[in-house]
């Protein structure tokens, strides 16, 4: 059995099996782990009838990885005359990629300032030679001073900010092509609301600012603590705030 190039998943392959020395010519059949395959092309015989060649045109699938392909040559007039050649299938394929959040992280409880890490799980043959990380469709680069650490298997965001929320993905490449993970959404929760009025606790109107995080600001009565004075405030949040970064409340 002969094959010069490696077999690739999803690409039709042409394999040859040659039997020599049988008269009358041998009958060649193809098998995959005991299941017979159909060779569309009729087998060919040499002029002197001493050599027989069978051609198999076959498209391997991912589930065929590691299985055994066999060609068998049998003399139709002789019992116990079967000879066979086998090939263990070591298939090449485009990387299969999954992106997951660090196992110890709760995706619903990631706050500003937390350290976040992702794992890019890659299954590929031949092995991937490159992994690229994306945030909201933009390729990320290694910026250790900014707390962005990229590697072939991991992405680390040190002291994550609200602006780093969004969709993340990783793409792995090998000679067969590029495999991209399904996107993974990172939600970053605002850690606190900041009081910007020095007259905290007095009657009148004060302004509280908050970051544009995926979680919306509270709409009900909320107990807050002033940053400059250790005093509890009760604020009635209103929907008609003046800017997208501020709410008005009566203190």
TrEMBL record:
Transmembrane segments: none
Protein name (record): B-cell receptor CD22
Gene Ontology cellular component terms for the protein in this record: membrane
SMART domains: IG, IGc2
Primary localization: membrane
Species classification: Eukaryota, Metazoa, Ecdysozoa, Arthropoda, Hexapoda
Superkingdom as given in the UniProt entry: Eukaryota
Ig-like domain span: 1-88, 95-187
Key words of the record: Disulfide bond, Membrane, Receptor
Keyword Methyltransferase: no
Membrane topology, as annotated: Single-pass membrane protein
Organism: Eumeta variegata
Places the protein is found: Membrane
């Amino acid at each position: 059995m002969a094959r010069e190039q490696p077999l690739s998943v999803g690409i039709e392959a042409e394999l040859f099996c040659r039997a020599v020395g049988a008269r009358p010519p041998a009958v060649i059949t193809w098998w995959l782990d005991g299941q017979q395959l159909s060779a569309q092309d009729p087998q060919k015989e040499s002029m002197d009838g001493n050599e027989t060649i069978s051609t198999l045109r076959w498209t391997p699938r991912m589930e065929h990885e590691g299985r055994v392909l066999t060609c068998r040559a049998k003399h139709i007039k002789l019992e116990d005359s079967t000879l066979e050649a086998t090939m263990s299938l070591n298939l090449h394929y485009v990387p299969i990629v999954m992106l997951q959040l660090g196992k110890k992280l709760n995706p619903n409880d990631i706050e500003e300032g937390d350290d976040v890490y992702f794992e890019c799980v890659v299954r590929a043959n031949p092995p991937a030679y490159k992994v690229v990380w994306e945030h909201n469709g933009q390729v990320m680069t290694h910026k250790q001073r900014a707390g962005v650490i990229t590697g072939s298997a991991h992405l680390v965001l040190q002291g994550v900010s609200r602006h780093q929320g969004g969709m993340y993905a990783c793409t792995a490449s090998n000679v067969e092509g590029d495999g991209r993970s399904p996107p993974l959404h990172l939600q970053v929760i605002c850690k606190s609301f900041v009081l910007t009025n020095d007259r905290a606790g007095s009657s009148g109107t004060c302004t509280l600012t908050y970051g544009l995080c995926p979680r919306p600001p509270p709409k009900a009565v909320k107990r807050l603590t002033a940053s400059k004075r250790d005093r509890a405030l009760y604020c009635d949040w209103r929907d008609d705030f003046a800017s997208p970064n501020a709410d008005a409340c009566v203190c």
